Amino acid sequence: MRAWARLSDRLLGSAAYEGSPPLWLVTEGLVVAATSTALVAGSGTVAVLAGMSPAHAVAAVAVAVAAVALYLLITWAGHLLVAGTALLGILLSPGVSGVATEAVLTGAGRAEDVVVTVVAYEPDDSPAYYCSVRHQDGSPVGARLWRGCGPSVLPGDLIGMVYDPAGRVAPRGIEGPGAPLWSLVRTAMLLLAFAVVCFVAVVRSYCVPPSAQSDQPRGCEPRSPSPKAGS
Fold it and tell me: What is the pLDDT, as a whole number, of residue 225?
């Protein structure tokens, strides 16, 4: 039984206080959750605005997530909750940089029609169709477009493209407004889940006996063995 209690503390955190957690602990959990979420979202945004490649922007978010996970481990957070934070961070990495890219193209992007030069069908990828394009003045576009490209598109056709005049992000094709909105909603939901798990991890990382709720250190041993009979 005691071994199970130790395993539970290791995986989920001690949380050995009676009733609701104290206000100061809830406050710290909220501060850590907000700071961690801002760090993760901000790292991806700054990387995109700095003109980093998508892979480097994803790596910047991953570094921020690793820093948050390390902090939670140092503060004796439950290992299962730390793993959940890291997993959500991995799922967030491409989403944060993608939303930042969409924000740049929405705010500062320019739209134009470009000429399709090659339509590539790659069934092992998703999406499967990619269009190589050029500007109407003949200059090539470095990135292939998948939005607006499909089996009905032929070389010589015109498709829409949005690009950043400052060259900070890669251009993309134009399609219906639903896809960028869904990406934003998905990333917002993951960020919310990330913040909630961070909050729970911090709140459960403390063992606060009722007699000393303001001074008890993290990772204390809440469960002392029962005294032996006759001692």
Answer: 40
